Amino acid sequence: MERARAYREAGADVIFVEAPESVEQIELIAREVPGPKLINMFHGGKTPVVPRERLAELGYRLVIIPSDLQRAVIRACEDVLAAIVRDGDSSAVADSLASFAEREEIVRTTDYLALGT
């Protein structure tokens, strides 16, 4: 806490206190550290997951969720690969896949191909 206040006094734009381990610690940081604060929220970490609306009420202006999407993608990849190993193809999970057209749009294939012309 002392270090966080010192960084703020030195001119830091945003303060990040690593891994509070309880809601009480999250609230204490919010009360005791002036200025905009950043908090790291993800399932399975040391910090309990708190709804972003509550974090905003406490004064946290930035909430990062650094690994939940990545871990969801890992699980989805495992599920598709398991279906392929089990069934010989991905038909059993086809309904959970983005369409090929959606994929092309997301990765901006048309824009990429236009660079070569």
From TrEMBL:
Pfam families: PEP_mutase (PF13714). GO terms for molecular function: lyase activity. The keyword Isomerase does not apply. It comes from the Bacteria. Keywords: Lyase. InterPro entries: Pyrv/PenolPyrv_kinase-like_dom, Pyrv_kinase-like_dom_sf. PANTHER family: PHOSPHOENOLPYRUVATE CARBOXYLASE, PHOSPHOENOLPYRUVATE CARBOXYLASE FAMILY PROTEIN. This is Isocitrate lyase/phosphoenolpyruvate mutase family protein.
